[in-house]
Design a protein that fits this description.
By secondary structure, the chain is of the alpha/beta class. The protein has one domain (2-134): Flavodoxin domain (Rossmann fold), CATH 3.40.50.360. Helices cover 43% and strands 18% of the residues. The protein is built from five helices and five strands. The protein has helices at 2-10, 27-31, 49-59, 87-100, 116-134; strands spanning 36-41, 63-64, 68-69, 75-81, 103-109. The strands form two sheets. The protein has a three-stranded parallel β-sheet with strand order 1-4-5, sandwiched between helices. The chain has a two-stranded antiparallel sheet with strand order 2-3. α1 (2-10) crosses α5 (116-134). The longest helix has 19 residues, at 116-134. The protein is globular, with a radius of gyration of 14 Å.
């Protein structure tokens, strides 16, 4: 799914795409991003622990007592697969997105099977993110 989102972003020229596992991503990656996509498997109706850890590590550096959220309005998309279809995991990501004040463009929650149709939706999701990131 991540590579399908990447293909969608690449349809719009001018973006440098950096794919990282959650455990390797940092506050610097987030603050320098024109847009962000977060993908995770659905583990026990929640996001993967490493994704939650990423948000825990970058939340406080992203907040300013003077400016408010330093991540406000960063265009963002989420995608989830597996588990019970991903809806509860998406809901948890949406709550975190609100805390960071991301501009959540859209999301996809897929089931346990990756289909051609799901990958097409992911590509379209990447295109949406790219289009929104151009306006930032």
């Amino acid at each position: 799914m991540a590579y399908a989102v990447k293909r969608g972003i690449e349809k719009t020229k001018g973006f440098q795409i950096e794919m990282k596992k959650a455990q390797d991503a940092s506050w610097d990656d987030l603050k320098n991003a024109a847009g962000i996509t977060i993908g995770t498997p659905d583990y026990f109706d929640y996001m993967a622990g490493t994704v939650k850890d990423f948000f825990d590590r970058v939340f406080y550096p992203s907040q300013s007592k003077v400016k408010g959220s330093l991540t406000a309005n960063i265009p963002c998309i989420f995608f989830v697969s597996g588990g019970t279809g991903g809806k509860p995991a998406i809901e948890s990501l949406q709550k975190i997105g609100q805390a960071f004040k991301f501009n959540v463009i859209d999301y996809i929650n897929g089931g346990s099977k990756i289909t051609a149709g799901l990958l097409t939706k992911c590509e379209n999701l990447g295109e949406k993110l790219a289009a929104e990131s151009l306006h930032r």
